[in-house]
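Case study B.
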Amino acid sequence: MPSSQQLTILGSTGSIGQSTLDVVRRHPGRYRIAALCAHRQIDLLFEQCLEFRPRYAVLGERVLAEALALRLGAANLDTEVRHGAAALEEMAALPEADAVMAAIVGAAGLPSALAAARAGKKILLANKEALVMAGPVFMRAVREHGARLLPIDSEHNAIFQALPPDFDGDLLKKGVRRLLLTASGGPFRTWSRADLEKVTPQQAVAHPRWSMGKKISVDSATLMNKGLEVIEAHWLFNAPASMIEVVVHPQSIIHSLVEYADGSLLAQLGNPDMRTPIAHALAHPERIDSGVAALDLFQLARLDFEAPDKERFPCLALAFRALELGGNAPALLNAANEIAVEAFLEGKIGFTEIARVVAATLAADSLIAGAPLESLDEVLAADTAARRFAAEWIARLEKRERMF
Ligand code: NAD
Ligand code: MG
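Model:
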């Protein structure tokens, strides 16, 4: 067995963070926790510190960090507590950390994921928004600093597993014809357009196959999640949009496929449980127990496939559009979507208005810049501008609703 690996977990209290700790828990001695980072969930972070005894713990604000430090002190733990965004970047670059699980949700996770890349870490990337916003900047940092990028998103992890182990970014050289990303279709796959107008936040966060955080659950329901994943696949595997196809597969058993020139389709199958890709990436190139039950093919009996309906779910087409536009468009798409999803969850806008806000932002000539993004500052400038634009658009929508 290799010597124990030290791990920083960014977003340890989230769905992916907790699943990661569950895999770690199954392999005492193999993994040690250098740092656990969360935002506000002090009670859960405290419990996690008691169990995993990290050298550092991070919370979003000073008052929370002070409260945690007191509780850890009273429990005789010498975990050092930090707070704020700069601490996340510091934890991502800790000299003793071999690997960093990037599992913060949304744009908030970009600077720390990038810091891990710049420190040349093994990065287990769950935070797809980081790659969507900052694709060229992130991938350049990975290359220039010798970081190793392992996808946690189940589709990309499946593709990674179905590609040859010596894949170096040239799909054609490896005889790859297409990447097929599977999508469950979300909870409203069969709903009419009229019914989609009435979807409530509660309905949208209840995913039929996967148990996940709120933001990604809403993204799965609008199919924006698949759109973000198309852009993620573009950067991870150097695949043009024309080589990426989305296939709706309601059972979520095939996690994605690679189609080769000879007609072979290589797929990765398994029960829908994120502990499989997490265990795969943690142990790569070895295989370890993840706690996920083996797939029972007899019970499964059948697998279904259909084409996505881009009319009822316009977010998927918007993401393809952003990828084609290039430049800052994916960053605008991501930021507008984050603002719109938040507004939907707060009851400010309807479900189908999420796509309208994103479409309006992508259509704003004043925001679009075609040149490839070169720096984190440029990415954050696009992010800020799109957030402002989307928020104003939503405010106008709300005002109109109050008038009628
Ligand atoms: P979640 O909402 O359950 O957890 C988010 C985590 O991020 C929490 O630990 C929270 O404390 C932390 N966080 C939030 N805002 C923060 C901020 N401003 N600063 C620091 N920390 C902050 O989300 P999740 O479902 O675990 O998803 C995490 C990421 O993984 C997302 O990018 C998501 O798209 C991706 N992902 C999740 C799944 C899944 O099954 N949950 C699958 C594939 C990809
Ligand atoms: Mg996914």
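The first strand starts at residue 5 and ends at 10. The remaining cases will be described in the next quarterly update.
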